[in-house]
Specification:
The chain has 350 residues and is an alpha/beta fold. Among the domains are: 110 residues, Arc Repressor Mutant, subunit A; 70 residues, Double Stranded RNA Binding Domain (2-Layer Sandwich), CATH 3.30.160. The strands form 2 sheets. It has a 4-stranded mixed β-sheet with strand order 3-2-1-4, with helices on both faces. It has a two-stranded parallel ribbon with strand order 5-6. Strand 1 and strand 2 form a beta hairpin. Helix 4 packs antiparallel against helix 5.
């Protein structure tokens, strides 16, 4: 080719047209593989489903299959199999099946595998889940907060419930109804020795003093719900996301309605901040503990964020003199901090 000649341009559209078709074909393959996995779990035959076996069914190399599966489904093949197996196991328990029967029917090779998995995802062992919390020790306290009474309940492993309500009696009654076989006692009479510190952290969070809550949880939910709740915990204090954005973040952009349902079933208010998720239009949407309370939480977070920024600015001004002292007198508590104080915690028995 001469020096003055130019290379032929690529034919427009051919390579580009093949790429969307290839992605659509891969998505169809992954849907078929997911259906096979679910069917195998229902039959108790999920054990032989190795990565090599699934890749061969999809007509791909093992490496390419694993990469495409994760990109399209949002989790690895192994994680999908484990979640599907656990879902079937929980469903069998809910149908009054025995633990042993549910275990082997779901395809678990040994009891240790399901107990190990349940401890990480279910938040309870299978026996505890099946028996309504039998054998669990749950301690609780009810705080008076600017957004209503807040019940905090925890097992030995972490916080299992935080919920708002208007009546202490009703909050405790609902807790006992959820865990009818558990030993439920006020935190002041015993329970997890870390309970008081956890409750104080939540109280500070409500006053803007501790924006990020990273406390241990002991909750149960489906694999999808756990995935959504984990995503919600990454939303920064004072920020908001839409249900559509959350669905995209977990790799399932069409699951907007399911994301909303997972938010509605969140058992731990504030710790899993479902109040930070809105409709794409900006409308508040729903909230398990009342839309008005949701609006109040969002407004308080925004004020708390603004206050922290002002304090940060004041600290920079302080380098030049006493200007910060004039702008933010130390002897005057701000409106957020004054809402939940040590006396409130003592009143709750902490």
């Amino acid at each position: 080719m001469g020096a003055g000649s130019t290379a032929p341009a690529a034919l427009p559209g051919k390579a580009a047209s093949r790429q969307p078709a290839a992605h659509a074909d891969d998505a169809a393959r992954m849907r078929a593989i997911c259906s096979d996995i679910l069917a195998a779990c229902r039959k108790g035959d999920a054990g032989p489903l190795t990565l090599d076996t699934l890749a061969a069914r999809a007509g791909m190399s093992t490496f390419h299959f694993a990469r495409r599966f994760k990109a399209i489904v949002g989790v690895t093949p192994g994680q999908f199999i484990a979640a599907a197996r656990l879902e079937h196991f929980k469903r069998r328990l809910g149908q009054n099946g025995t633990i042993g029967g549910a275990l082997y029917d779901a395809g678990y090779g040994s009891p240790s595998r399901v107990y190990e998995r349940a401890g990480r995802v279910l938040g309870m062992t299978p026996g505890e889940y099946r028996r309504g919390g039998e054998g669990l020790n749950i301690s609780y306290a009810v705080l008076d907060t600017p957004v209503g009474r807040l019940l905090i309940a925890a097992t030995d492993r972490g916080i299992c419930c935080t919920r708002f309500g208007e009546s202490r009696r009703a909050l405790v009654r609902d807790l006992r109804a959820e865990y009818p076989a558990a030993r439920i006692v006020p935190a002041r009479t015993g329970g997890n020795p870390q309970f008081a510190a956890w409750a104080q952290a939540i109280a500070r969070h409500l006053t803007g003093g501790q924006p990020h809550l990273d406390l241990p949880l002991d909750v149960r939910g489906t694999a999808f719900q756990i995935k959504v709740w984990q995503c919600l915990r990454t939303i920064p204090y004072g920020e908001r996301r839409s249900y559509t954005q959350v669905a995209a973040a977990i790799g399932q952009p069409r699951a907007t309605r399911a994301v909303a349902q997972a938010c509605a079933r969140n058992p731990v208010a504030l710790l899993v901040p479902c109040h930070r998720v809105l409709r794409s239009s900006g409308d508040l949407g729903g909230y398990r503990w009342g839309v008005r309370r949701k609006a109040t939480l969002l407004a308080r977070e925004r004020r708390g964020l603004d206050l922290r920024r002002r304090r940060s600015d004041a600290s920079q001004i302080a380098v030049q003199g006493q200007a910060a002292q004039d702008v933010f007198p130390r002897h005057e508590p701000d409106e957020l901090t004054a809402s939940v104080d040590d006396g409130n915690l003592r009143h709750a028995g902490l």
